[in-house]
Design goal:
Layout (H helix, E strand, L loop, with lengths): L1 E10 L2 E6 L2 E7 L14 E8 L4 E7 L5 E2 L4 E2 L3 E7 L7 H14 L2 E7 L8 H15 L3 E5 L6 H11 L2 E7 L5 H6 L28 E5 L3 E5 L13 H7 L24 H4 L8 H15 L12
Length: 306
Amino acid sequence: MKQNGIILKIDSHQSDVLLGQQVYRAEIKKSLMRFHQPLVGDKVNLEILDEAEKSAIIVSFEPQINTLTKPRLTNVDQVIIVTSLKEPDFNSYLLNKYLAMLEVKGIDPILIFTKTDLLTNSAKDFEIAKKVRTYEKLGYKVLKINNREPMKNEFEKLEKILMNKISVFVGQTGAGKSTTLNHFLTVEKQIRTQEISKSLNRGKHTTTTIQLYPLTPNILIADTPGFASFSLEDITPEDLFYNLRIFKPYLNQCKFNNCSHLYESGCIFLNSPNSLKGAQFIYEDYCKMIEEMKQKRGRLGWKNLK
């Protein structure tokens, strides 16, 4: 009898598959390998081979709802982007690029800002705090966490957000993804964390595999390898025009339907006195994304941009 499960982890031609509250070691039916490259998060149909040994075979795959390319995961409900405010320094461009990708794909982002205890009263840190408030004003779900002395209520909020979802933790290397995730894992499953390499202003990779962790009750979360750079794969400038949150209030109001909000006459966004209020840094990062796309041949629409 076929039963439905979710792939938690993949090792070569075998996978750990969650079925109910049990994890089975499952091989993939050879005939399927020609048509489907399995991903963590895939919903599959299983035939149990040995209940005592918890072994099974994957006989079919359910259609994928969505797919992330970095990390390679599917059927994701939401992505928790963990961003450090200090050590490593706040990187708005990396954050805004990832937000752009999620908004194009229609996946809900959750923003977690870590290292809040390291902010001082300096003008630079005041600007960082101001940017965090901008994301809140734009309607993003935002949590601010001190990983060294975590506030219980913040993790209670996060736990509610994670309920009944497949959630993926991503972010810059050293931002505290694994440390945050460890608050939900048993000691034997906790992921090793390391001190930040200050000389490089980035952390060393501590997560080497991509997998989903089944938590109680009804929570599936993944920690992924940290990264210091991120490329907008398979996304066009037009995708950004129509999907970035700062442009949504002005959709279909500009003179040209494909307005890039960069230079066009009749651009309502550029002519509105409130469009960039507090969000100038997001717009500047958008301009950098477009410039980056222009440098890559083969991007649809890049030739039409000045």
